[in-house]
Here is the input.
Amino acid sequence: MASIRIWHSYLGMVLAPSILFFALTGLLQIFSLHEAHGHYKPAALVEKFSSLHKDQVFEAKAPEPESSEADAKPQEEQLKPVSVYILKWFFALVAVGLMLSTVLGVWMGLKGTLRRRTHLWLLATGAVLPIVLTVIQ
Here is the structure.
């Protein structure tokens, strides 16, 4: 069991930055905050992070052409069943819980003195590696 705990902590440290990234960007996508609709225009960084989340490319999508008023109601004006809203909020709670659990796991991993330096290196590797891979595309 001790060996499993050690490997679990190592794997957790490497994956923690990506878990936090995907939980946060997924939370934004649950409520469609990553794409323009109506009068709302997301920040360029939010669009780029969404693109990285969905397409593994760090770039904003090209703006879509404006539709005419003769088109059907925009998606955000269409009525949805209450269960859709409940599910969105449940998944938002899951994303927040995942972020909180990950932050607590990192904190616990760094709190111990025995493998703190190894955990810091693994955490840094998990944060830097995706950035490097994104830049060299």
